[in-house]
Specification:
about 0% strand, about 150 residues, single chain, mainly alpha, 1 helix
Length: about 150
Amino acid sequence: MEVNSTLLVQLFLFLSLLAWLSKFLFAPMQKLFDERERRIEGARIEALRLQKEAQQRLEEVELRIHQAQKEARLALIALQAEGARFHREILDTARKQNAQELKAAQEALHEQIETVRAELLAMQPEISQRVSERLVDFDSNPTWEPTHA
């Protein structure tokens, strides 16, 4: 095999091109790829950190929600108890008022009964007189028909 000068020139040009490409293309590209990898790794680490932080915040929010629900249930129970107490008070007041009104109505009715009795007792002689007159009229007139007087 013969080595000629063209082969040496081509080898020299190839190695020169390789050195030049290595310095001006491959090295910057490698730096670019390394920088890209570093950024991706940094972003991945940051994403993991943010994910952990989000999980912690979610747990805090869920805890707050749970506490708020517990407080709301306790407040609801307290309001229901207060509502029931208020309902009982209203019913008791209404019952007392109804009892007082019933008692007043009964007293007024008894007063009216006593007034009517007194009036009837005062009218008793007159009523007796009328009844007697009608009985006498009936005995004397058998075809007698009652009059509306």
